[in-house]
Specification:
51% helix; five-stranded antiparallel β-sheet; alpha+beta; 635 residues; 14 helices; single chain
Length: 635
Amino acid sequence: MTASVPARRAGWHRLLSMRVLVPLMLLAYACFFGLYTLGRDMAHREQQVEEHVREEVTQRMTHLQGTLEYLMRTGQREAVREELADLGSNPHLTVGLLLDDQRNVLASTRLALLGHPVWEAWPELIRPGALARMKSVKVRMSGDVRVSEDGSRVEGYYPIQLSTQPLGSQVGLLYLQHDLSQLKAAQHYRAERSALRSSLLLVLIAGLLGLFFHFALGRRVRRLEAAARRLAGGELSARAGLRGVDELGTLGRAFDEMAERLSQEREALRRSEASFRTLIERTPDAVFVHRERMLLFANPAACTLLGYAREEELRGRPVEELLMPGEQDPLAESSLLGSAREVRFRHREGQQVLGEVVTFSIPFDGQPAVVSIARDVTERKQVQEKLRTTDRMVSLGTLAAGVAHELNNPISYVLSNLRFAVDELGEAGDAGKPLSDEQSQEVQQALREALEGGERMRHIVHDLRSFSRREDEHFGPVDIHAVLDSCASLARTTIRHRAQLVKEYGEVPRVLANESRLGQLFLNLLVNAGQAIPEGDAKANSVRVTTERVDEVWVVVSVRDTGVGIPPENLQRLFKPFFTTKPVGVGTGLGLSICHGIVTAMGGRIEVSSEVGKGTTFRVFMPVADKAIGQTKPA
């Protein structure tokens, strides 16, 4: 049942093909043209018959009018009857009557009608129309020959003067009725034969054209159709190979050109797909394609990232299974301006793998999908942490001389006071005498001063330890002024021989940060500010630290120095790793790069402006802490 439907459709398509449709159209045209010609020819021939017979009847009646009037005037009534009787030999003349003024038959083509009144001899003449015409011709004394309304006959009415009396005294009527049916039938036969000959000629032409289309054009059309079907079936080497300057030849050449372009484009697409697949499979970055949070594709790097051997083990898994808890959203949202986001992936064995991910939308298998490209940055983050620790050590090493001096003064102070107290107590003990009130007060004063020196050393050691140890990465509310005071204390030795340290603190809330990393950031900025100012004129230069709240979201800390400044060509490279303008052995080129990473990791940003010879300003923007939220971020 189902196979017969395509078969019937194919049959209809064959009937509607050009090689069949054109001859059918020509045949239909031949039939239509034959019928149209037949109808038109028959109407024309009927009109000709009517005109010819009407003229013939008119001439005959005009001749009879004169002849009959002469015979009636000379009293030759028998000759009148013979004259009309002779008309009976005409097979197409239905009847001929000569009526007197009383409408009795005086002469007729039919002898049986003689002497009878008209209503008995020929009842048609007493109809209203016939009576009106008879009256009209007698009044006008002129004949009237017409074709009947149904076109079947010609009727003539002519007045006949019956006596020698004055005109109009005795007027009879000559009536002739000529039949047209036989004449028209003969003309119909001739018209049909003519139309049949024309139709047969057109049918012959249609048949010849059909054969031409079938053999001359049909094979070419079938060849083009077969090539098109092969091309549609994926055989891109199919060509029609049609020649000629006609439309089919032009169409065939256009088809071959299209097939050639399709073949070239298909080959280019195949090479592009092969190159793209090779690129995806060999790229060191992990590529995930997912739709509606279900994984559709993963390249070998993605399998390696997550600890799987084959891509089939990952395909069809929910995206949530590939991520650590709390990391479901980053793979579903497109990255803005191609920026990467850190995502914690879950390794097959359960450990955490840190990746930088860029996500965007593309069509995949004809439907919208999401592509996430991830780069394993676990080792890089570990190296960066080591570099930050190293940079802290380098910064502390830079401060070592100043810190040693800072410790040396209170140590000397403590030692001298302790020696004084020991000496006083020793002398009193040797003498066996108690200390006098004055000596007791001096010893107490010396011990208090030694205690103050010890506290001073303890604070210095505490500040050093806070910046040299690696604390956890807890982010929470931080008093930025306390951090700045600790950093200023450590950097004081570097700055005091070059400039004055000025603090201009505003009313600012706590910021969301990590205290240890924030201290490393500002210590680097303060040390760099001090090193940017040459030694020798500390009173004329300054390192100014200001804090202010710019809006409801940000607190800005500015570190401004009056040093040598930074050339414009170096400002764009300032935060790149290992870029430095300091002499060899003085800087590593990592300080500002690490500062930039610290600020970015804490959700802030850092800006720099400088003018050669006038100084440099670093502005650090930190987010205001939300006391209701605390979060922990990975290194």
